[in-house]
Predict the structure.
Amino acid sequence: MKSVFFAAASGVVLLAVSGAPAQADEGMWTFDNFPAAKVKSAYGVDIDQAWLDRVRGASIRLTNGCSASVVSPEGLVLTNHHCVVDCVQALSSGEKDYVQDGFLTDSREEELKCPGQQAEILAEIVDVTQTVQAAGAGLTGQAFNRARDASVAQIEQEACANDAGYRCQVVSLYRGGQYKLYKYRRYDDVRLVFAPEFATAFFGGDPDNFNFPRFNLDMAFLRLYEGDQPAVTPDHLTWTARAPQEGEPTFVSGNPGSTSRLLTVAQLESQRDLAIPVGQLQRSELRGRLIQFSQQGVEEKRIATDPLFGVENSFKVFFGRQFALNDPSFMAAKRAAEAELKQRVLANRALTREIGDPWGEIEAAQAAYAEQYMAYRQIEAVAGGGSSLYGYARTLVRAAQERNKPNGERLSEFTEARLPLLEKRLLDVRPVDRPLEELYLAFWLSKTREYLTTDDPATQLLLGRESPEAMAARLAAGSRLDDPAVRKALWEGGQAAIEASNDPMIQLALRMDSTARGLREAWETEVEAPTARAAERIARARFAVYGDQVYPDATFTLRLSYGQVQGWTHRGRTIPAATTLAGLYERATGAEPYALAPAWAAAKDDLDLSITYNFVTTNDIIGGNSGSPVVNAQGEVLGAAFDGNIHSLGGDYGYDGALNRTVVVSTAAATEAMRKIYRRDALLAELGVR
Amino acid sequence: MKSVFFAAASGVVLLAVSGAPAQADEGMWTFDNFPAAKVKSAYGVDIDQAWLDRVRGASIRLTNGCSASVVSPEGLVLTNHHCVVDCVQALSSGEKDYVQDGFLTDSREEELKCPGQQAEILAEIVDVTQTVQAAGAGLTGQAFNRARDASVAQIEQEACANDAGYRCQVVSLYRGGQYKLYKYRRYDDVRLVFAPEFATAFFGGDPDNFNFPRFNLDMAFLRLYEGDQPAVTPDHLTWTARAPQEGEPTFVSGNPGSTSRLLTVAQLESQRDLAIPVGQLQRSELRGRLIQFSQQGVEEKRIATDPLFGVENSFKVFFGRQFALNDPSFMAAKRAAEAELKQRVLANRALTREIGDPWGEIEAAQAAYAEQYMAYRQIEAVAGGGSSLYGYARTLVRAAQERNKPNGERLSEFTEARLPLLEKRLLDVRPVDRPLEELYLAFWLSKTREYLTTDDPATQLLLGRESPEAMAARLAAGSRLDDPAVRKALWEGGQAAIEASNDPMIQLALRMDSTARGLREAWETEVEAPTARAAERIARARFAVYGDQVYPDATFTLRLSYGQVQGWTHRGRTIPAATTLAGLYERATGAEPYALAPAWAAAKDDLDLSITYNFVTTNDIIGGNSGSPVVNAQGEVLGAAFDGNIHSLGGDYGYDGALNRTVVVSTAAATEAMRKIYRRDALLAELGVR
C-alpha cells in the first residue's frame, strides 16, 4: 500500500553522479566517442564504424523535440504517436478529430504536411573548440557572451553558406568543454502517414505515464518529402516483426534533450529551491485550468487534449526531478563527487593554477540567479504563457530589429543559420484556438501580477489598469496573427510594418520589448556568462582527471546509448521485461483512460495475444529521445522508445542501472496491429514485412 | 523590478529560532505566563491582572478557525469579514448573493444563524501535566497513544460533566511539555449582524493578500445568542473611533492556529521535502480547476468564491513556508539553535541521562513518515478532497462505531466532550453545492490514483473499475446527505442504519473505513507516538536550559502578543505604518479585484479621506488570529487583525521583528464607513460612538 510513484523519491540514492567514469550501460554517447570496446566486453557484440554510420544515417531529429528513424527506402519514418500528436491536432477540426479517431492514409496523396516540422539527419561532425574558446578568451560578462555568439554565428553561416539543403549548428558539449559543428541534411516537408487513436497510443493516460507494465501503441509514421516527392532514402533501418528477447543487447539512437548531470551542487540547489518549485506550482495550476476547461464541452475537450498531455507529462518529469533533488542522500552523493574532483584538482598544482576556483564562481552567480529569476522568468522566459499569438508577435517584433543588424550582433535565435527554421515555424499554416489562447494569456498575466506583485513596474507596464482576464479576452479576440498572410506581411514589412501595426498583440510585444530585453541581458551577463566561463574550466579539470571516459550532458543532439532488454526489482517486487497484447485487454475498464478504441475492442479475437506489446531496456535515455529507434546488434529496429519508468525520472541528474529503464513499443505488436486492426498492407509491404 | 512576493524567500534569515529566549515583541504568550515586566521595560506600560482578565473575558475563539472579541454589553462581536464569509455564502443563494452585496440588518430579527459556528470564551486554565504524562509513562507506540487519549478524554469529560454551557479541552503545550485544561464558556447560537461587500472586504484580492499597503474593510459583526435572546456580556472591550498612533503599544488577543517553531530539524526537513511540496502541488491544481470553474457562469462564480479564496489564501501561506525552508541560511540557523540546545544538555550529565537522544528518535521516525505519507494523506488525512458530503458520510460511519465504545477507547474526535460540537456541525442546515462536490471528488479521486498509482490496492478499493470523473458525478448526484434530516436519521440510527443505508456516499465511506483506519493507526503508531514521546523530553530539556522565557508553539488556544504600530524597511524601501481611505480611491481601477463596491464609489465625496484605513504593528501572530482585537494599553479596540505582511509568511518557523508585521483594519475607518456608507446608526450607538 505504498506509492510506486512517490517511490521515485527514495529510489535515486544509487544514481551515478557527474564527472566520474560511467557505470555499466550508463551514458548518452556521441557518435564520435562511442565506447565500443566496453560494449564488446559487456555484451560480446561488435559495433563497428559501418554499423555506426548506418545507424547515424537513418537517425532523425525532429525539430519539435523528438527523435525518429528512417525505415524504408522511400522516406518512411518511425516515431512516437506523442511526437506527432501536435501535428494530428493541427490537422483536425471540429468536424474531423484525427486525435480521437486516428489518421490513416490509403495513398500518398492523403499524406498531409505537419506544420512547423522539420526533420534533420546528422551528416558531419567538426571540432571547432579552439575557434570558439579563443573568441571569448580574456573577456567577461556581456562582452564574453557577444564574442562567443558572434564566433558561433560566423562558423554556422560559413559552414552552410553553399548548402541550402543543410542546417549547421555549433553545439556546446561538456558544458563548454568542447564545441562541435554539427551539419545536418534537412527535410522541411514532413508529412503524416499513420497515427493510431489517442486511446490506443496513450492507453492508461497520465496515471500510467512513466509507469510499467504498459500497453501503448505509442508509434506513428511520417514521410520525408523532397520537391513534393517522397524522399529517396537508401540509408534506412530494417524493420523486424520478431519480438525482442530478454537479455538481447539494445542500442538507442536519438536526441536526448537535456540533462544536468554535470551541474555543480550550487546550480542543483538553485534548481531544487527555486526554479523547479516555481515551475511546478505554476504548471499545476495551469493543468487544473486545462482539465476544467476540457470538461466544458466536446470541442473544448478536443482542443485541450494535446496541451493537457504536454502539461501533465512535464509535470511528472519535474515531479521526479524535484523529489530526486529533495532526497538528502542523493545530494550528499553529488557533494561527495564534487569534493572528489576538487581534491584531485588540488593535488595537481599546474591544473589548480590553470582553472582557479570555478565552483566558487558558479556559487557566487547564484545570488544574481535568485535575485533576477522571477522577473526574468515571467517577462522573458515564459512570456505569453504558451500563447501562439504572443509567440508570433514577439518573434515578429524582434526579427524586425535583429535582421537589420550584422549577423554577429544579433540575438542568437535570429542569426542567419537559424532563420530558415524560424521563418518556417512562423509562416506555416497552423490553427489557433482562441479559447485556449485566452486561457494561456489570462494565466500568464495573472501569475505575473501575483509573482511580481501589483506594484512592480513590469506588472504595471504589462497590465496598465486592465485586469488579466479582460486583457486576455481582448488580445485573444482582437489579434489577427492567426492568419499566416498577416504574419508574412509583418515579417516582410520589417520595422516600419511593426510600428504601423494596430494588432493588439504586436502592440503588447512592442511595449514589453525593452523591459524584457533588459531582463534578458542582465540574466545573460550576471548569471549565464560567469557560469559559462567557470563551467568551461570545470570541464577542463574533468578531462584532465577522467579523460574521455565521460560523456557530455545531453544537448538535443544525436547520441547512442547501449543496454539490454531487462526488467528490474524494487523493494522486493520484480517487474518483468515485457507485456503482451493480452495484458491490454485485462487492464481495459471501458472508462477513460482505460477505454479501448472501438477497432481494438472489436479485434480482440483476431489478434495473437501472446505477442510482446511493450518492453523495457537498460538504455540511458531522457526526454527528446522519444521516438528513437531501439536497434539490435544486427541493425534491426525492435521498437520505438517512448518513455522511461518511474525511477528514470531522476535521470536528469544521474543514471542507476539497477532501476532506470527505457520503455519501448515493439515493432512486433505494431506489425500485428497494422496487419489485423488497421489493415495497412501497403505500409507493411514497404517495411518489407511478408 | 524584483519580486516583493518572492523576496519573502530571502527575507527570513534573521528569524529568531526555536527554543532560545524570545526577541523583543516575539511570542504568542499564554495568559498565565505573559511577560508583563518585559513589556513594562520596553514600552513603559503596565499590563496588570485586571487588564488581562478583562481582555481574556472579551476574547472569543470561533470554531471555524478564527478569533473575535465582544464589543458591546449585548453580545456584539467584532471579527473579520473573511472569518464569516463561509456563513455569508451559506446564507446566500442564486437569488440573493450576500457575498457580493454585503449583509445588513435593520433589526435583531434579521440577524441570521451561522451554520456550524460556535463561539467560545476562555474561563479557566488548570494544569493537568502530571496526570496526562503519568498515563503514558513507560509505554510506546499505540499503547502510548491510547493511554494518553484515554486520560485526556477522562479529564475533559469530568471537568465539564455538570456544565452544559461549557466546553472542556486538554491542550498540549510546548509539544507535550505541559498539558493544560482549558475551560470555555460556549455559545452555540451565533448570528450574522453585519458584513460588507466582498469587493470592499477583500479589495485587492489575492494579488494584494499578504502584501501592504492595503485597503480592506475586512471586518464584520456577529452576535452571541442565549435562549434565543442576545447574550448579556458585561465583559466587553471599548470601541474607539480614534486612529492609532505610530509607536503606540498594541496587544493582540486571539487564537493563533499553529506554529512549528519548536520542531526539530528532521521534522522541518520532512515538511520541506515532502509534505509542503505535495500539498502545494495539489493545491495549485485545485486552484486552477476552481478558477476555470468559476469562469463558466454567474452561479459558478458565486458558489466558488469562498472556496477559491480559501485555496488561494492557503497557497500563499505555504508558498511563504516552502521558500523559508528552502532558504539555506534559515535552515542553518535552525541547525545551529538545535546544536546549541543539544550541547547545553550534554554539558549537564543528569539532564542527559534523563532525556537521552530524543532528536535522534525523531529523526528515525522520518523514515516511516516518508514511507507512509502519501497513502495516509490521500486515503485518510485529505479523504474526500473537500467534499462536504464525504465528510458527513465518514463522520456518520465512524460515529456509529465509536459511540458504542467506552469514552477512553474512542478515536479522539468522538470522545464525549467533543460530541456536542461534532453533532452541531453535522446537523446544522447548510447548503451543499453539487457542482462543487463533483469537482472536489473528481479531484481527490484522480489525485489519489495518480499519487498511489492505478495498481495500488487502496486505489483499486477506492475506484474499482470506475473512472474518477464518473464516480464523482455518480456520488455528487446520488447522495442525499445534503438533507439534514437524512443525516439526523443516520446519526440516531447508529450502526444498523449505516449498514442498511443505500446512500452511495455512506457506502463509499464504509468500504474505505477499514483501510483508512489501518493507515491512520500505522501513522499514529510509527510516526506520531515516537515523535510525541521524544518531543516531551526535548521540551523538558528546553525548560531546564531556558526556563519559562520561552512560549509554546501555537495550538489554536488563547494567546496574547505585544508590539507597537510601526512600518518597516526592506532592501532600502520604507513602508509606512498606515494607509488612508484616500489610498483606496487611488488604487481602484474599476476591474476586479480593484473594483469598488457601488456604495463606496458613490460615497467618495462624503468621506473623510484622511482617516487611517489599514495599519501594521509588530505583533507576532499567525493564521487563526484573524479577527483578533488589536487593543491598546487602555483596553480600547483599535482594530481587527486580518493579515500578516509578506515577510510574516515564514512566521510558522520564526519571528523577525525587523520585518514581520500584523495587518489591521482600523475601528476609525470602520466607524466612518458604518456612519456614512452603511448608515448603521443603531450599531454605532451600541458601540458607544456618538
